[in-house]
Fold:
Amino acid sequence: MDTIFAQASALGRAGVSVVRISGPLAHDVATRMAGALPVHRASALRMVKDRDGGFIDQALVLRFDGPSSFTGEDVVELHLHGSIAIMRRVLAELGDFDGCRLAEPGEFTRRALENGRLDLVQVEGLADLIEAETEAQRKQALRVLSGALGSKIEGWRSGLIRAAALLEATIDFADEDVPVDVSEEVRDLLSEIGIALQHEIAGTKAAERIRTGFEVAIVGAPNVGKSTLLNRLAGREAAITSSIAGTTRDVIEVRMDLGGLPVTLLDTAGIRESSDAIEVLGVELAYRRAANADLRLFLLDEGDSPPMEPLPDDLMLISKADLSGDGFPAVSGKSGAGLDQLLKEVEVRLGALASGAGLATHERHRIAMEVANRSLIAVQSLLDAGPDRYDIAAAELRLGIHALEVLVGRIDAENLLDEIFASFCLGK
Structure:
């Protein structure tokens, strides 16, 4: 296997830049450039030189011996001064060694997967951790990266393998005079795993929202102050405001961190009957985005009714509190009246949604678990039909096991791996 290298820190000037080297020649190449290496998991200050002995930089050198490294291979990291020129020179020097090449995007992490240091779910957790912008996203990604979901899946897989083995043993001894009744143990295993699967499936929507962001739609009639409210909450002029009704035609989106949760505020077109074809399209889009949002803020003039059926957690707000002087739920985007209370209410409602989050964070996870759960339901029905159907039940269990193995990357899924690792940077 080639020895790979790449810059593991951000591109450009910095206080420190890191080069990571992994593979069978990592220690040899690093020794030839930086002299004697420190012991495993230790660091030392070394002079980094080219093959002609020319001085390149002084670096902190860290050594990791496989398999106790991130990739499971021998790894060396060079922590250099963050100069673009130094980085180019070191990478060029590494590229001149036989058997060394620049890493592809995500290749270090892919080797960690192939060498059993991470499962596929942990790989996705690492990608999510790198992308995390809020505290909730960071905590969720760390839970996945820690292997908590992978451990759960491995437990389910082991239980299903045990159930399949019991059924297959019954089939093998069907002609013997030894009475074997495994149905109760199999049913208990299926029941326990089925409950756990259903619980995890139920938490995927909230978990995925934490990962991608909750959507909160501001809904109301034209000229009620939706865009002004959005701008005040965003702290900038994100949407055009005007006294002319129907100014907003498209959906304006603003990302924000609310109590550690990622939130996208949506300013939608004012909902009303119109003969303007463009405005009609904007109203239709407003209905769709509002219906799919996690929470709706209905901004109404005093005495008005909401333009669409509200859900139990939606908030009813009265606009123009700067004119009326009323307290919350009256709010004003102009003066900021009532907005502190509004943000607290939104945070409470989204926090309640987030509290139901499970460990599975991607749609891929949910689909695989649903496939496994359907297999369990089918097996229960086949068990009810008696021992003559045990062979089909065992085959159905194998489908469930296969779904879980794909989920953690135990079996070949080359196209899926290519898609996942393409999102990683070179140094990961």
In short: The CA atoms of residues 170 and 180 lie 6 Å apart. The domain at 216-354 is CATH 3.40.50.300 (Rossmann fold).
